[in-house]
Write a structure and sequence with these properties.
single chain, 746 residues, mainly beta, Immunoglobulin-like, 4 domains, 24-stranded antiparallel barrel, nine-stranded mixed beta sheet
Length: 746
């Protein structure tokens, strides 16, 4: 999860990581009692139900301080009744006018704004927790934090309610979480784990927790305190039916010079179902799901890229227990399921074993990755298939063992089956050892017109990865080894490179000065990869430094000396790489730039040139209701010209503006404009290529949300491409759409 997002508490794993040292005493347990009366979620803690609630008044500043007393006072209150778990907060602020509290869509919080809330580990495994945080405008954010993978994923959404209110001496927060939104084992009385959290950005980003987070180590959720006294909770039986209806009209043109031809108005509908037969088990089913994207994917430059690009998953059906899809080798990438007709899935935990199993029929469309040792291609997926994915994970204290299996059976012939174990071993608070071995068996479809490889051939091979992370307060290092066969395929995953062996080693030493900088880490990186015959694919040696400082700033600079294979030759490359980001105020909330300058490889023509890549972004908030996000990306490469001197091979760019006006916590209007273009000099290419191509996409969306499944969307989309001469942007697709979804709960 990037630092610009809300609740990036896994920030600690990059240098202020939370430790699970067995030698240290656990956090003091919190005893909770049933509410003494009713509670109304209105941002007022005077309800009868709050009287006698567990009071949590011991907090620690974990960043930038090292578990020191907080510089502002924080109070938390916890209680529950037959249906809900409640948390209340009083956050004091000596200067309430400096509270950073913009309006925004759900999950649209950043670490540069004020918010507070809780992390709950209801399965008490010390590995996975659900984060619920809210800003002073009642904007909600929820995510799943998974220690084994080190990821925080904000894609999953949960039913819960919250209300906050700014006061003359700070702000107050009140939240209720239905037990039906949580998964917990069947035991009585129950003991969960919890930590309370406040983000307080001013001159630095201050973070306060109700548990200590010692620096150095390899886990975060494991530090949560025990929560005792939960009795008589619901045992399951919750049902959610979420039907939807859509209507759209689409106009298309065969090319940018042709007129748009409007199609007929189309209506569609479908149903999502979630049933929790027990408190620890969820069953999801879907019929004709609406998997349309209502926001364009994050812009990425594809020019001079060797491997297929990765885009995150956003679709609700795949998000229950999403952390179970995360393994060292990404053999599960649910965006490979492009157009499911139906799907069913079960996710749960029995004893110390967590599981998820998914079965669906995919109509196809989109692309399949065709991987190789030094690059990947894409092929159109013009066929229907049945897909099954499952994983079992057995917890062994802070360690685990697991088994993954995936199967894609192609209608008309062909299959891809992948299976194998993985594990994670945490012998102490400083070390984490992880490994995975997978074996694939494939028969390609008989569709040579789509890809030369798809001639019905049989492919069998393996993939393996192992790594060891060691982290202390000052010293950290990381070692990794990959071994992937030429014929390994994971068509349900994201594995764009096969046929290689790779060794990585990285080490760092952290200083903690005072003043502008609060953390400075110097590091080195050495990695080497070869093909299966021992031929060099890539070798890198680099040294650099990263630092955190005032205005929530992060800076990283490193110099890399590489040797890189392009086609049949190995070429030298030297680059200076950089990342700079900071947040000076609420109005100028986030500014960042990253990229490189120096030598770069022209992979199409196998030669070394000189160039640069610059990615600039900024988030501005002129008012509390209006947010403007700018993204500018530029990449260019100069090479030797046939007539002597240097010439510009290509310039690629992405220009993107996203403007969002949020009326209330439930309603917003968003407008996006994005232009992607590449200019080339065809004389410098060995193969024929267009001198220029470009595309513009624009969209407008009005949204009203009662919750994440009860929504109304009204939208417009417009896509344009440059004509053959590269001079005129002509329309190729235009769409109006409406979507209405309502969640019925019992």
């Amino acid at each position: 999860m990037p630092l610009s997002r809300a609740s990036n508490i896994l920030f600690f794993l990059a240098g202020t990581a939370a430790s699970a040292a067995a030698a240290e005493p656990e956090s003091t347990p919190i005893a909770i009692h049933r509410a003494a009366g009713p509670i109304t979620i209105d941002g007022d803690l005077s309800d009868e139900g709050w009287k006698g609630a567990a009071r949590v008044d011991t907090w620690y500043e974990t960043n930038p301080g090292d578990n020191t007393p907080p510089r502002v006072k924080n109070l938390g209150y916890l209680t529950y009744d037959d249906r809900f778990f409640y948390a209340g907060f009083e956050f004091q602020d000596p200067e309430p006018s400096k509270i950073r509290a913009p309006f925004g869509d759900r999950d649209n919080l950043s670490g540069t704004t004020d918010y507070g809330g809780i992390l709950l580990d209801t399965r008490t495994g010390g590995k996975t927790g659900i984060l619920f945080v809210v800003n002073p405008r009642s904007i909600q954010y929820d995510s799943v934090i998974d220690d084994p993978s080190g990821n925080e994923d904000s894609s999953p959404d949960f039913f819960w309610n919250a209300k906050s209110r700014i006061t003359r001496d700070g702000w107050v927060l009140e939240m209720s979480i239905p037990f039906s939104s949580l998964r917990y084992p069947k035991s009585e009385p129950r003991t969960w784990r919890i930590m309370l959290y406040r983000n307080y950005p001013r001159d630095y980003r201050y973070q306060f927790f109700t548990v200590t987070l010692p620096r150095g180590g390899s886990c975060f959720v494991c530090r949560a305190a025990a929560l005792t006294g939960l009795e008589g909770l619901p045992s399951g039986g919750h049902l959610v039916l979420a039907p939807y209806a859509t209507g759209s009209e689409t106009g298309k043109a065969d090319d940018p010079d042709a007129p748009l031809q409007n199609g007929a108005v189309k209506a569609d509908g479908g149903l999502d179902v979630k049933w929790t037969p027990t408190a620890s088990t969820a069953i999801d089913a879907t019929i004709n799901p609406d998997f349309s994207q209502i926001e364009s994917d994050v812009a990425q430059i594809g020019a001079n890229e060797r491997f297929a690009l990765f885009f995150p998953e956003k679709r609700p059906f795949f998000l229950e227990g999403i952390e179970l899809f995360s393994t060292p080798i990404q053999a599960v990438y649910t965006r490979t399921l492009t157009a499911p007709r139906w799907g069913v899935r079960s996710t749960g935990k029995f004893g110390s074993t967590a599981y998820t199993a998914l079965l669906t029929e995919d109509d196809g469309g989109g692309s399949v990755i065709l991987p190789g040792p030094n690059g990947s291609d894409l092929a159109d997926q013009e066929f229907r298939s049945f897909v099954a994915i499952s994983r079992l994970r057995r917890d062994l204290g802070q360690s685990f063992v697991s088994l993954l299996g995936t199967d894609r059976e192609i209608r008309g012939g062909g299959h891809n089956r992948v299976a194998g174990p993985d594990f994670q071993w945490r012998p102490n608070a400083r070390d984490t050892v992880t490994g995975q071995a997978l074996f694939s068996d494939s028969r390609t479809p008989l569709r040579p017109e789509l890809a030369a490889e798809w001639d019905g051939r049989r492919l069998r091979d393996h993939a393996a990865q192992a790594w060891w992370l060691h982290s202390t307060k000052r010293v950290d290092w990381f070692a990794r080894y990959d071994d992937v066969g030429n014929d390994f395929r994971a068509d349900d995953g994201y594995v764009p490179q096969v046929g290689y062996r790779r060794e990585d080693l990285e080490g760092g030493y952290t200083f903690r000065p005072s003043g502008f900088l609060r953390r400075l880490r110097t590091f080195f990186i050495a990695d080497r990869s070869t093909n299966r015959d021992g031929g060099l694919l890539n070798r890198r040696l680099s040294v650099g430094t990263g630092m955190d400082g005032k205005w929530s700033s992060f800076l990283r600079f490193w110099y890399a000396v590489d040797r890189v294979r392009a086609k049949d030759v190995v070429l030298p490359r030297q680059q200076l790489l950089y990342v700079v980001q900071f947040s000076p105020s609420l109005k100028v909330n986030d500014v960042g730039v990253d990229g490189f300058i120096g030598q770069e490889i022209d992979f199409d023509n196998a030669r070394t040139g000189r160039g640069a890549n610059v990615n600039l972004r900024a988030t501005l908030r002129p008012t509390d209701h209006l947010e403007l996000r700018f993204n500018e990306a530029r990449r260019f490469l100069d090479v030797d010209a046939p007539a002597g001197g240097r010439a510009r091979l290509f310039t690629a760019s992405v220009d993107r503006l996203r403007a969002t006006y949020t009326f209330t916590a439930r309603a917003f209007l968003r407008v996006i404009g994005q232009y992607v273009a590449t200019k080339r000099d065809p004389r410098l290419y060995a193969a024929e290529i267009a001198a220029k191509d470009g595309a513009f996409s624009g969209s407008a969306l009005f949204a009203y949300k009662l919750n994440w499944q009860t929504v109304l969307f009204l939208g417009y989309g417009d896509n344009r491409e440059l004509d053959g001469a590269g001079e005129h942007l002509g329309p190729v697709e235009r769409q109006f759409f409406v979507k209405l979804s309502y969640a019925f709960q019992r």
